[in-house]
Amino acid sequence: MTERRPSSLFILTGAGISAESGVETFRDKGGLWSKVRLEDVATPEAFVRDLARVQAFYNARRAGLSAVSPNAAHEALARLEHEFAGTLTLVTQNIDDLHERAGARRVLHMHGELAKAFCNGCAERRDATRDLAVDDACPACGKTGTMRPDVVWFGEIPYHMDLILERLASADLFVSIGTSGAVYPAAGFVSEARQRGIRTLELNLEPSDGSWQFDEARHGPASRLVPAFVD
Ligand code: BJW
């Protein structure tokens, strides 16, 4: 990092960091939410209404992960995790595993992970290395129709919120990478940081809706901006 070195750095990533790896974003032109209604696949109600459709949507996205690789932005953040002398918190809204495949080891997945499954019946969590099927029985409680992708849908509470807010409060730099800032609570992190006097930086392809809230914004592809920020 070339500028004033923070001792506590909080980084939030979104779909834009994985876009150059070939993972679709949600709200860009041609993004996922222009092809499928989020109400049909990303709500607890959709899971109850049409389990097969929801499973198929996430099975296809899980299968797609084997065809993509981390890009220079994920790699730069993994390097940063290993080299940063202060406290680094890396929070992602992404359910892909590209940060980990680049070598990051302490990623907080606030919207869950495609590689995990969760039982609505008994709260058992397990690795999901293959497609989930409608008639899968939970290995722990034996119920069927309860195994779901371990992801956070609209109306559900994101993971690790207490830890995330604690780390955000003690940061001295908040960096938002590749996210439109359209989804709460992550969209509120920048105002939370500002209220606490924490410096804020946006790295995004183009100005996000909330770009004006940041002390500084740099625009361009994550594969260029993130290594330039880290190195
Ligand atoms: C590049 C790039 C490149 C492209 N380089 N950049 C009114 C009604 C109902 C609900 C609400 C309401 N108002 C608020 C809510 C709450 C709701 C919400 O925010 N809704 C909004 C739509 C208004 N939020 C929730 O329900 C959340 N839960 C909640 O609030 O609980 C209450 C609570 C919270 C905390 C404590 C206590 C209680 C849950 C939200 C769950 C979101 N889930 C999803 C799906 C997850 C699984 C999946 O992936 O399928 O998460 S939705 C989807 O959006 C996904 C993403 O993580 C999330 C954010 O998207 P992201 O990452 O920003 O992607 P895009 O596509 O929007 O943006 C990409 C950006 O990258 C763009 O800016 C590009 O320019 C940029 N880019 N290429 C750099 N190469």
Question: How would you describe the overall organization of this protein?
Answer:
With 231 residues, the protein is α/β, with parallel strands linked by helices. The chain has two domains: 1-23 and 70-111 and 157-231, Rossmann fold (3-Layer(aba) Sandwich); 25-67 and 117-151, SIR2/SIRT2 'Small Domain', CATH 3.30.1600. The chain has ten helices and nine strands. It has helices spanning 16-19, 32-35, 38-41, 44-49, 51-64, 72-83, 98-101, 161-169, 189-195, 222-230; strands at 8-13, 87-92, 107-109, 112-119, 125-127, 147-151, 173-177, 199-204, 216-219. The strands form two sheets. It has a six-stranded parallel β-sheet with strand order 3-2-1-7-8-9, with helices on both faces. The protein has a three-stranded antiparallel β-sheet with strand order 5-4-6. It is globular, with a radius of gyration of 18 Å. Belongs to the sirtuin family. Class III subfamily. Its EC number is 2.3.1.286. Residues 1-231 form the Deacetylase sirtuin-type domain. Zn(2+) binds at residues 119, 122, 138, 141. NAD(+) binds at residues 14-33, 93-96, 178-180, 204-206, 222.
